[in-house]
Specification:
This protein has 106 residues and is of the alpha+beta class. The protein is built from 4 helices and 5 strands, in the order ββββαααβα.
Length: 106
């Protein structure tokens, strides 16, 4: 049996390559007309900004690269965006929705 992500601390930092946990899926819910993260017995409804960030969490991009993409797109201060992105990703990782790519390799 695969251990849950809650059983260990997932530290998110600028070098991390975040990806949705194996049991979680980001999907557009036609009924709600919203993006949702589906996991066993759980549904999370992220806001539009969180969805945009999650769509960049492909396991290939580092958090630093995600921050760069968003800072360029919104012509915003990289440091401010970085703090928000890391806080959001850490929250999702702590709830078991997100992993670091290296943690998902078999």
């Amino acid at each position: 049996m695969m251990p849950t992500l809650r059983s260990r601390q997932v530290d998110i930092h600028q070098e991390s390559r975040p990806v949705l946990a194996r049991h979680a899926r980001l999907r557009f819910d036609e009924t709600r007309q919203r993006w949702v993260i589906l996991a066993p017995e759980r549904v999370l409804v992220p806001d539009e900004v969180a969805v945009e960030i999650l769509q960049l969490c492909d396991g290939d991009r580092s958090v630093a690269q995600i921050i760069d993409v968003l800072a360029a797109k919104y012509a915003a201060d990289r440091e401010v965006i970085g703090l928000d992105v890391i806080a959001m990703l850490r929250d999702l990782a702590g709830k078991g929705f997100l992993a670091d790519r290296q943690d998902t390799k078999s």
